[in-house]
Amino acid sequence: xxxxxxxxxxxxxxxxxxxxxxxxxxxxxxxxxxxxxxxxxxxxxxxxxxxxxxxxxxxxxxxxxxxxxxxxxxxxxxxxxxxxxxxxxxxxxxxxxxxxxxxxxxxxxxxxxxxxxxxxxxxxxxxxxxxxxxxxxxxxxxxxxxxxxxxxxxxxxxxxxxxxxxxxxxxxxxxxxxxxxxxxxxxxxxxxxxxxxxxxxxxxxxxxxxxxxxxxxxxxxxxxxxxxxxxxxxxxxxxxxxxxxxxxxxxxxxxxxxxxxxxxxxxxxxxxxxxxxxxxxxxxxxxxxxxxxxxxxxxxxxxxxxxxxxxxxxxxxxxxxxxxxxxxxxxxxxxxxxxxxxxxxxxxxxxxxxxxxxxxxxxxxxxxxxxxxxxxxxxxxxxxxxxxxx
Length: 390
Ligand SMILES: Cc1ncc(COP(=O)(O)O)c(C=O)c1O
Description:
By secondary structure, this protein is an alpha/beta fold. The chain has 15 helices and 12 strands.
């Protein structure tokens, strides 16, 4: 399989642009978008029949055949290493994390343990639940950029107390892009009887995922980032013993009818992002999924080495903590604060037609490079030069 710019026509991206930001909102392949259009046309032939009989149906309806939602869930479950009965579709990772947080019975003084790498939108959700319940949010500082997995586990374990209700940890962090040792973190928390939610927003399509082996109480992830599904497509796997107490943020007909039935219907929505998730998986497989992940990882690691060399900045993260995205420190002249990161991001786009994520951390501006099948070393070279020119 040949990767790089030659594959760009498989996505609808502007060929003039250098797109190094697959991670932020994903890019839907042409083939998957076409499958979604075909499905939408099929739905409109007989919308009520499709949505109320084929897609989802009330318990006790005439047919016992699996609904289309359940058939798609089974395909996604096989891809991510979960049981289909433990997996439900949600709009996005934010919806899944909100469902868990807002289902929990939290008493004043209970504690949520999070890390300083948590995604900003989820930090807002945790703070909101703490504010309305009287719970406390403890933020664990993870070792970074030199990030020893053993120290990561120790830091979380030592933050646990008798009041810890839930630990939330990233599998791949949003800004730093660090791959955290989530299976070990889950083991350490379970040894203390503490529940764990893993935010795997960036993982399906980027790492070889085995949700069951991780063993978290809740594993929430997007399919619309690296797994090539249309937006809004995400899933949540909940351990069987937790399912009765987790409810969607929107309560509807399925309440008290069982976990999957409850999440499969939360009002009328466009179901095509979930039903086309298997098309995204098949697209990944058509590119040779193992070779694709290998190529993307090697390109991300090349970006880390090449850009730090070009910019004269340190490379402290170990390759083993990197998936298909990497965050690289820019030169000090770029600035130190969030406003400098926003300025860099926009100058790269509007002056150089380069789309890349930029953020401030530890008093410096970093760019997070996403490496995807359509990228190659020339894109990394262009980024290196453009940052030097800003
Ligand atoms: C680590 C992480 N968690 C959660 C999210 C939120 O994803 P969504 O906007 O699909 O809910 C993101 C978005 O980029 C993310 O990077």
